[in-house]
Amino acid sequence: xxxxxxxxxxxxxxxxxxxxxxxxxxxxxxxxxxxxxxxxxxxxxxxxxxxxxxxxxxxxxxxxxxxxxxxxxxxxxxxxxxxxxxxxxxxxxxxxxxxxxxxxxxxxxxxxxxxxxxxxxxxxxxxxxxxxxxxxxxxxxxxxxxxxxxxxxxxxxxxxxxxxxxxxxxxxxxxxxxxxxxxxxxxxxxxxxxxxxxxxxxxxxxxxxxxxxxxxxxxxxxxxxxxxxxxxxxxxxxxxxxxxxxxxxxxxxxx
Amino acid sequence: xxxxxxxxxxxxxxxxxxxxxxxxxxxxxxxxxxxxxxxxxxxxxxxxxxxxxxxxxxxxxxxxxxxxxxxxxxxxxxxxxxxxxxxxxxxxxxxxxxxxxxxxxxxxxxxxxxxxxxxxxxxxxxxxxxxxxxxxxxxxxxxxxxxxxxxxxxxxxxxxxxxxxxxxxxxxxxxxxxxxxxxxxxxxxxxxxxxxxxxxxxxxxxxxxxxxxxxxxxxxxxxxxxxxxxxxxxxxxxxxxxxxxxxxxxxxxxxxxxxxxxxxxxxxxxxxxxxxxxxxxxxxxxxxxxxxxxxxxxxxxxxxxxxxxxxxxxxxxxxxxxxxxx
Lengths: 255, 326
Fold this sequence. Notes:
The complex is a heterodimer of chains A (255) and B (326).
Chain A: H1 2-17, H2 20-52, H3 61-85, H4 87-95, H5 97-102, H6 108-140, H7 145-171, H8 176-197, H9 203-211, H10 215-221, H11 227-254
Chain B: E1 2-10, E2 15-24, E3 29-33, H1 40-47, E4 55-60, E5 63-64, H2 69-74, E6 76-79, H3 91-101, H4 106-119, H5 135-147, E7 153-157, H6 165-178, E8 183-188, H7 191-197, E9 200-205, E10 208-214, H8 215-222, E11 227-233, H9 241-250, E12 254-261, E13 266-273, H10 280-289, E14 293-300, H11 304-325
Parallel strand pairs in B: 3-8, 3-9, 6-7, 7-8
Antiparallel strand pairs in B: 1-2, 1-4, 4-5, 9-10, 11-13, 11-14, 12-13
């Protein structure tokens, strides 16, 4: 485990040694802030209208701002993941440092888990940018904190899956652009699957819908923890890291 | 210390290493010699557990690379062809990372990194970013990385490539000073390097083992006969080169006389003797008795360069028909 933390630490350092970490944080902060602005503006406008009409429709910050906002955050994540994971293995393969890692007394699993943890921690740093916005809502409104925490848990689990998949794709090539491009395509596909199947019903569609990583986030965004979603995410992370280790193994045999 | 038996490594279409066997004793420096693409790097990668062998066995310090890779990795320091450096790290930071990766205790680490940096002459750049270092410094940081955990076996893939002459000498001296404590395999395609720093040499060409012996033995084995360079003073076409050649050929024990040069008032010949015959004194007497001026007479040992060319050339001759058929 020590070795995994060591590699995680190294990954995190190299993210922050290059502009990429700051760039992604700024990118996410900006877009999320824009989402926050539109969501609150609409909320305020809507609540004024309600008051003018004299009705007392229940206005709920959780349901009308935070839920949609964090769903929006999960969509942005799809765009961030390729940029986080593309370098994980591709860069090491290109620069030859993979030889150092693979000839040091550490196991493949420690390397894989370490790199994944590093990517996760960077994602958490990026996610912190959104906390500023949500904190503002807590300062001026009285939303319930529990559904917010659940939504954040969902975001983290979802990102865990996508990062593990991205890590796997990064082991397949020594070209970062290809790794990033393919990961982006896969993320986009998962997003489209969800979008496509949301209009249709039927056994095939429900299977596709179940596979789509984004679908399982919906419950979390509503503040609902379902064990099937957690199990889905955890097994997906496990599976992706497992095929990553298989891919590394085959790397040795093929290369 | 290192034992390789029938090692074969096949890639998708090519055989990189073909049935190689050799052994290396503890504390030896062994040169791994071969032209580019001969399979040096592949063999080293197998020894460092980076690649698994397709066939055959390789073991380091008694541990098999397939069955006990962890134990092998603990005992090996490896410097690949391109030093495995993280450009965004400082030298100290990098060596600390590698030290921890190799499992050095954190309380020892600081002193160890300091010592190795001094030994590899990178102490004065310790707080520089690796991306800002010159090629020579990078190479030495790479060497420092390989030495850090005092490995039993050091595997260096072309350790002096890209260095300037002064750095090459320094690196050679460093490698020399490491012998004894460490068993060292270094690969190179520069022959003088092996002559300078290695006790034994393993020559491979096109994936096959061509020769393995001590440098001195190899020279002896291949030198069927003694070669002597003879140089005479000449003026206005006298003495006549063909006369000299005929006279030298008459000396007993001479097998062959080759004219090398006849310019700038000198005549140079290379004379080869029959096996085991000392001909230098007879040659000198013959030249002086004929009334010619003898400028130089020296024995030419075959250099490793010649050996290498002879070995790999004969190898190529054997292989050519096979290549033609396919």
